[in-house]
Every structure is written in C-alpha cells, then in structure tokens.
Design brief:
15 strands, nine-stranded mixed sheet, four-stranded mixed sheet, 39% helix, alpha/beta, 443 residues
Length: 443
C-alpha cells in the first residue's frame, strides 16, 4: 500500500509537470512567434499601407467624399480648429518614438513604439505660428529615394502658382519639399486637391520627386511658417530656399555635389551658398523661360545690353550684397564671400537642413519675413558665399498681362492677382507694366 501511494503521488507530480511544461511551451512559442513573425509582419504591412500611392489611387480618399458621408470626428482638436471634419484625418494622427537600442540591449525600454498625438507634436514644432492651423505633412509623398547629400528645393505654393510649380518640377527633376496652402473652406480645399491631381496627371516627375505638405487655415501669408514646414520635412541633408516663380537656368545641384571643397563647407553647417537672381527689364521677355540664357556668358551679354538685370533692382538692399559687379567679373568656378551684408539682404540660398536657425514664424505678410530669416542665420555665424557660375531668372506673371489685355484689370476677377502685387516692393513698376501699350508676347 505504501509503495502504491508513493507511485500515485509521483504520477500526479509528473502530470503537474507536464501541464506546467505545456503552459511554458505555449507562452514561449507565442512570444517567439510575436517577436519573429507577427511584429515584422505588422511593420511590413504598415510600410505597405503607407507607401507612396500611385497617381490614380492617390485620389480615392481625397476627391470622392460625398456630402452625406462623414469621416471620423474623434480628433481632439476638432472644435479648436473648427475645420471640416472630413479633412481632419488625412494622416494617421500620431507620431511615434522607438526605445533606444541601448535600452533594449540592456533589457530596458519597450519593443513597441510610444505614440504621441500628431497635433500636439506639430503644435509644439510650430508654436509661434498663428492659430488655428491644420498642418498635414506628406499629404503625398514622393516615390523617389534620395541620397542624403542631395539638395532638396523647399518652396511655397498657393493655388494661383501651380503652373510655375509644374515648370519647376520638370526643370529640376530632383527632390522638392513643398508647402501648399489652402484656406479653410470646402470649396478651396477641393480646388487645391483637384489642382494637385491635375499636376500628377500631367507631370511625368511629380510623383517621383515631390513631397507635398498641406496647410489649412484662414491666414494667407504665414510665409516663414510655410518655409519651416517645407524644410523640416525635406528628406535630404541640404535644402535650397526658393520662390516658385524662378527658373533654374544652370545645374548648380550637380556642380555643388561634385565639388569637394564646396560640399565640405556645406557639411560644416556654417555657410549658405547664394545663387544670384535676375529678371528681365522688359516684362514680356520674362514670360518664356525657353528663351532664357543657360550659361553665364549669354547672361552677361544680356546684362550688357540692359535687357536683364539684378532681381528687384528697384529695391537695391534686397540683392546688392551679392555684389553683381564682382559676379560678372568672377572667373569660372569661383566661389566668393559676401563681405557687405545688409539686414535687408534676401538671396536664394542652399544651406544645411540641420543647424541653421529656423525662420521666425511671427513674421507674416509681405515684406521682411525672408530677410529676417536670412539675417538671423547671418548673425548666428553663417557666412554667405556666391556661386559665380550659376544663376536663376524670375518668370514674369503671365496672368497679370492677361487680365489687362482682356479688360478685366479693374474687375473682381483680378482682385486676387492685384492683391498679390500690392504687397511687393516692385508693385509700382509692375503696375506701370500692366497698362503698357506694347503687348508683344514672345511665347
């Protein structure tokens, strides 16, 4: 009996061990499966879901919203932003941070990312801009893969300048980070999205090279905020601050990247490379970029004949510091330092994305916002150097001439165009051009 009792208890003990072992195996297999298969699969699906969409699938969610269909409205900022609910959830709505590898290697931290509300993150990143503003980074993301040492053009586009933007895309064929503004009305947001769709349909390179960041609010000219958005979300180490109306006449991008001593200066983060800006003295000659010069020799000939000159010559402090006389005389390959900097100087520059001060977002409207941004870079210790082989030329605004020719210059239809011009220092010259008798169009 005693032996039988011992065997009985031993049998129960073995059974208990089997149950514990089975439980352990289940937990171990579950944990291993999650780490080795489920988590990578989830990450892969996330990448797949969020990969750049084709130009056709892109518009499924942005252009087919019917009035009777409401999108999720659980967003924390819905009331504060007073935005149309259907436009609130373009993005995933959160930013995530991973635990550091150091922490994970020592058994600390957490394998899953920490999520923070995207609105909270962006409100802090752009805390000095005007509110309420809805910022949607990467509304559409370029499918191209860019090298870190490439130069991303950062620019701003409003609904009236999509034509010029299309020309920029086709001419540059490199990474572009653009902030597009839409007023907070259903009609304007739809108009902007349809204009974007038209760009994707008609531009061979839009989907490959352009990251689009959308800003929705009631403020028309938060230019420094828009500049900061385009720069922050650029995907290369270097950016060029450019206005969309300029035509790229020379390939400064390739020249800079292939010149070691220039790249070394950029990497150091203490220089800004100036690409000199020009404009035609005769309005009609600035309408057709196909006829713009492509090399410095042709440019200088046009300057000597007084057909071409410094951009915004009527406001000399804006570009005089480039020292155009020295530029014309500089030998091929020369890169010279700006020695007479003025606070009003506002050239078009290439800088390192990380390091230089950001544009002060409290500057809004026309006048001084970009100059203030560049001046802050200057007093922070950044030196300005001029690329003496390269140049850009301002394209005349065709729509101003069209309004005048059609007798609509004093109509409500031309109100937006005139408003755009009234804020510019060269408005007096442009206004004179509007009423000129000569209507020759070289295009």
């Amino acid at each position: 009996m005693m032996v039988f009792g011992t065997v009985k208890y031993l049998y129960r003990f073995v059974q208990a061990l089997k149950i514990l072992l089975a439980f352990y195996l289940i937990v171990a297999v579950s944990h291993t499966t999650n780490r080795l298969f489920v988590a990578p699969l989830r990450a892969g699906l996330s990448i797949l879901i969020n990969r750049p969409m084709t130009s056709r699938s892109l518009w499924m969610t942005s252009l087919t919203v019917k009035p009777g269909i409401n999108r999720p409205t659980e967003h924390k900022q819905t009331v504060a932003y007073d935005l149309e609910s259907r436009f609130l959830k373009f993005s995933d709505g959160e930013t995530t941070w991973e635990s550091s590898m150091l922490a994970l290697e020592h058994g600390l931290g957490h394998g899953h990312p920490i999520a923070v509300d995207e609105e909270l993150t962006l409100s802090k990143a752009f805390s000095t801009s005007m509110k309420p503003t809805k910022i949607i980074p990467y509304l559409f993301r370029a499918s191209g893969v860019f090298e870190p040492d490439d130069i991303t053009i950062t620019t701003l586009v409003t609904s009236s300048r999509f034509g010029a933007f299309s020309q920029l895309i086709e001419r540059y064929q490199g990474p572009i980070s653009v902030t597009i503004h839409a007023r907070n009305t259903t009609d304007e947001i739809r108009t902007v999205l349809r204009s974007l769709k038209h760009l994707y349909d008609t531009s061979e390179h839009m989907a490959t090279y352009v990251d689009v960041h959308l800003v929705i609010d009631f403020f028309d000219r938060q230019f420094n905020t828009w500049r900061n958005i385009a720069r922050l979300f650029a995907r290369t180490d270097y950016v060029m601050m450019l206005d969309v109306d300029f035509y790229l006449c020379t390939d400064f991008r390739t020249a800079v990247r292939r010149t070691p001593h220039i790249m070394n200066r950029l990497r150091g983060g203490s220089v800004a490379l100036v690409v000199p800006a020009f404009e035609y003295t005769k309005y009609t000659e600035g309408l057709n970029p196909a006829k713009f010069p492509r090399d410095k020799g042709a440019l200088v000939d046009l300057v000597k004949s007084k057909r071409l000159g410094m951009f915004h010559a009527s406001w000399a402090p804006g570009h005089n510091s480039t020292d155009y006389k020295r530029y014309y005389a500089a030998p091929p390959g020369d890169v010279y330092k700006v020695t007479q900097y003025t606070p009003a100087y506002e050239p078009y520059v290439i800088v390192k994305k990380e390091g230089p001060p950001w544009c002060d977002e409290r500057f809004v409207g026309y006048g001084g916002n970009k100059a203030a941004c560049l001046y802050e870079m200057y007093i922070s210790g950044i030196s300005y150097f001029v690329l003496a082989d390269h140049f850009i030329i301002h394209q005349s605004h065709r729509y101003l001439k069209r309004y005048n020719e059609n007798g609509l210059i004093n109509s409500t239809q031309s109100l937006n165009a005139l408003q755009e011009c009234k804020g510019r220092r060269s408005y007096a010259r442009l206004a004179e051009v509007l009423f000129m008798e000569e209507t020759e169009d070289p295009s």
